[in-house]
Amino acid sequence: MEKWQDPTESQKMEHIRQTFLNHEMPVDSFSDSIMKRIGDEGMEKRASRKNGNKFLKKSLVAASAAAVLGAGIIGSGFVSPVMAETLKQIPVVGSIFKGIDDKGLNAAEEKGLSTAPNQSVTHDGVTLKVTDAYYDGSRLAFAIEREGIDNDKMMAEMIIEPIEFDPSLTEQHGKVTMNQSEKGLLGSAEVKLPNGKKLESQMSSFGDVEGKKNAILYDYRNLNNIEALGDEFELSISVPVAQIAEPFVIKVPVRKVTEGIIKLDLNQTKEAEEFSYTITKLELTPATSRLQLSEEGKAPTVKEKDGYTTSEMFYEIVDELGNAFSSGGSFNLPAIVYPLVDKDFIPFAQTPKTITVKPFTYSIDENHKALRDEEGKQVKHYYPELEQTIQVEQK
User: Fold this and answer.
1) Residue 4 pLDDT > 70
2) Nearest 5°: CA angle at 53, between 223 and 104?
3) What share of the chain is helix, strand, coil (3-state, %, to 5)?
4) DSSP string over 327-349
5) To which H or E segment does residue 35 belong?
6) Taking 90 as the threshold, does the pLDDT of residue 251 lie above it?
7) In what residue span(s) does the DUF5643 domain sit (predicted)?
8) Which residue in 307, 331, 364, 373 has its CB near the most CB atoms, within 10 A?
């Protein structure tokens, strides 16, 4: 089975970076150390990380600086008859999504929910072709194959320079450069909507697909500004390639998956002592589960082992059969309250009848690393008094 490495650690770094940039929070006591760690730790060469599920062999994860929940746009994409015909194509044998260690994309490919655009562009003897695409309103993923370069690697080394945190600035952007030493390696893609605006997502990743030479996967989750475009439109994907001056701009027709989608607008609140959280939205798709909520008050803490403190709040979702998935994409901060939480999870294989949200925290040391038990698993502390159950409407 082809695997791409779990990008959780990179997601943690970028998640908290954007937390600082987009929200006002009482983080002065640890902002310097966190931002230093974010800047000092590059986002390249993550192949050696082993974190349970393995996804990207190499990955770079970034959140859009403009990612603001609820952002809207005006206008929609026009789909020509030719494009509509292209969208009818189903995945072919050899699909990059097929067999990858990603339950969501695997399920989408097996159910025929992904498409095979097969749109390509050639520059300087190198051809890039978008072979697979999946879009469900919350998640966008596409795979690219490369021709004309004999190299086992696909992803260029991406280096982000350290950032000096300045609380007076509303936005800070680290300078990211792509190593140009090896021709034909790919950098981070820029995805534009039909109205010319950039795609906004809370989390994105890309990286080589192990076991499939000359293949790379781009993945965007918790999308913000794409809903108004409707079910069919065209994206413009621009990919920089090392030692080739002109970027590869590929026009890709996209069809929104509409079957198996459940969206619930909620207003469920649970409170215990000085902390409360309100679930505002639950979205279930074949490729992801998405939970949105807001937190208020003072984050709960528990008596910890010497040298450890209580982390920020995390969330686990559990169906009526006991299938459980935990949220990731954070930085194990000390207890802190977020006015806005937008988490994605591994999708459920079958539509649940109920989903119970279970808040929990980790025990973390001064370097924000979680305490582990004898089996090497992170120690979790659950808060039963804060659990909430969501009734899922069956279609």
Assistant:
1) no
2) 40
3) 10, 40, 50
4) ---S---BS---S-EEEEEPPPS
5) helix 31-40
6) yes
7) 263-375
8) 364
Residue type for position 361: T
Closest CA to 100 of 231, 180, 213, 4: 4
Query: 95 phi and psi, to 5 degrees?
Result: -55, 135
Tell the residue number behind the tokens 């001064």, with chain if given. 366
Are 144 and 327 within 8 A, CB to CB?
no
CA distance 1 to 381: 34
The third-level CATH classification (topology) of the domain covering 262-391 is Immunoglobulin-like (2.60.40)
Exposure string of 317-329, with b = 16+ CB inside 10 Å and e = fewer, is bbbeeeeebbbbb
DSSP string, 356-373: EEEEEEEEE-TTSPBPB-
According to CATH, where is 2.60.40.1640 located in the chain?
262-391
Give 10 or 210, the one with higher predicted confidence.
Answer: 210
Please report which confidence band the pLDDT of residue 332 belongs to, taking 50, 70 and 90 as the band edges. Answer: confident
Helix (H, G, I), strand (E, B) or coil at 152: coil
The β-bridge partners of 192 are 198, 236
Output the six-digit token pair for 226: 């794409």
Q: Which residues pair with 176 in a beta bridge?
A: 160
CB 221 within 8 A of CB 200: no
Report the candidate in 301, 387, 275, 293 with the shortest Cα–Cα distance to residue 339: 293
Neighbours of 164 (CB within 10 A): 9
| Identity of residue 113 | L
> How far apart are the C-alpha atoms of 41 and 72, rounded to whole Å?
34
**CA 165 from centre of chain:** 24
List Cβ neighbours of 188 (8 Å cut-off, separation of 6 or more): 60, 62, 158, 176, 178, 206, 240
Residue 171: the pLDDT is: 61
* H/E run at residue 145: strand 139-147
**Cα–Cα–Cα angle for 175, 179, 184, rounded to 5 degrees:** 130
Task: Identify the three-state secondary structure at position 150.
Answer: coil
